[in-house]
Design brief:
Blueprint: H1 2-31, H2 48-54, H3 57-90, H4 96-104, H5 111-125, H6 131-152, H7 156-167, H8 172-183, H9 185-200, H10 204-209, H11 216-224, H12 230-257
């Protein structure tokens, strides 16, 4: 009976992971297709379509734009999220519960609604569609995530360390930079890398708030309008690879810090 249960557990695990990763495997496999159609039979492996992607100036420009927006918007999100979390955790503010709820509210709102709202706001304010507008939109959706992660890790033991530093004569800015930030580094890195991952492949807000300079997901959508081909598979594989690198780097960073 135990063997049957174990076999069923393995079968269930294989089915779950297959359901999750099979589309990605198929995507990567047919990005290596030698012919012009991403359909069986497989005629690779070939790097023809990766070379086509890297020689396409529109795609490489969109790739650079995505990296720029992801890095800068994530840095802004984690900075604002950390300062907000620190303020709520260390000071008694009137209506703090309501204010915390308002900060995390965008987590429950559709990206489409947020993007449309920002589009109307920017049109009213005279802000043109651009990478800057898209970056602001990414900060709007990622700041609540960074705030929630960092605020959840701020505890009383850190207050005692900060108080000890103040008793020794450290000014508030030194306490913040040399005590609070290092102690909260795992949560800060978690917010940063998750924000970069979400910003890197975010489509809806980038589509609504950019025009001439676009990000990679928008360019992928433009390619898909003409139908599937191995080039779109190659671009998708590159997007997936960058996301995996960010996640692995995040995991290695946390594992390296755990023994300390």
């Amino acid at each position: 009976m135990r063997a049957v249960v174990r076999f069923a557990a393995w079968l269930y695990a294989i089915a779950v992971y297959g359901f999750i990763f099979l589309p990605v495997v198929v995507l990567v496999l047919f990005s290596l297709q030698a012919t012009s159609f991403p359909i069986p039979p497989f005629t690779g492996p070939s790097l023809r379509w990766y070379q086509a992607v890297l020689s396409d100036t529109r795609l490489t420009s969109a790739l650079a734009n995505s990296l720029l927006v992801a890095v800068l918007s994530s840095l802004a999100s984690v900075t604002l999220g950390f300062l907000s979390a620190w303020g709520f955790a260390r000071f008694v503010l009137p209506g703090s519960a309501l204010l915390r709820g308002l900060i995390t509210l965008p987590l429950t709102v559709s990206y489409l609604i947020i993007g449309m709202g920002l589009l109307v706001l920017f049109n009213w304010a005279g802000v043109p569609k651009s990478l800057l507008a898209a970056g602001i939109g990414h900060v709007v959706i990622n700041l609540p995530l960074c705030f929630a992660i960092i605020y959840s890790q701020m505890g009383d033991h850190q207050i005692n360390i900060e108080r000890a530093a103040r008793d020794l004569g450290a000014p508030e800015w030194k306490v913040l930079l040399m005590i609070t930030v290092p102690v909260m580094a795992p949560a800060i890195f978690a917010g940063l890398f998750l924000s970069m991952t979400f910003s890197w492949d975010e489509f809806v807000i980038s589509f609504l708030l950019t025009r001439f300079e676009t990000t990679l997901p928008v360019e992928i959508w433009n390619l898909l309008r003409s139908g599937l081909n191995p080039k779109t598979n190659a671009v998708g594989s590159l997007v997936f690879a960058v996301s995996i690198v960010l996640v692995v780097f995040f995991e290695l960073t946390l594992l390296r810090r755990k023994p300390a």
